[in-house]
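Lab notebook: predicted structure, single chain.

Context: the supervisor wants predicted structures on file for every construct in the current expression panel, including those that have not yet been purified. This is the next one on the list. No modifications to the sequence; it matches the entry in the shared construct table.
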Amino acid sequence: MKNVGKVTTLFISVQGSSTRIEKELFNLDPKGIIEDKYYDTNINRSVLLTSEASYALASKHNITFPFGSLGENILMDYNPYHLIPGDKLRIGEAILEISQNCTMCDHLSKIDENLPTLLKDDRGIFAKVIEGGMIKKGDEITLLS
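Prediction complete. Output recorded below exactly as produced.
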């Protein structure tokens, strides 16, 4: 077990809105983030983890956009893109298991036509909830495996 970083910002999606809502904390159970509109839709895609490094990479190429634009639920100062399915993280009270890399979606090209190519391997990574609990801004991220 090793502390690898911290949660910097949390976001959820809500019914009827295309913008992400920033939260101070949220609660998770094995079906996902309880307040999120995608709760209980696909447990392998329950939580999208994104690194601040993705925003920094875009910024180096003169593409800037607000946090939350990549669709993340948890923005962190740790880069998780080297993790593989089955790896586990403790974030706050919850334990998440990496399930799959995030696929590119059309909305990224609306931000900038070069963004999908630029962030091909650096957009985010999905996790499923193994053990529920509260996650809040500033929580430590611990690599369990």
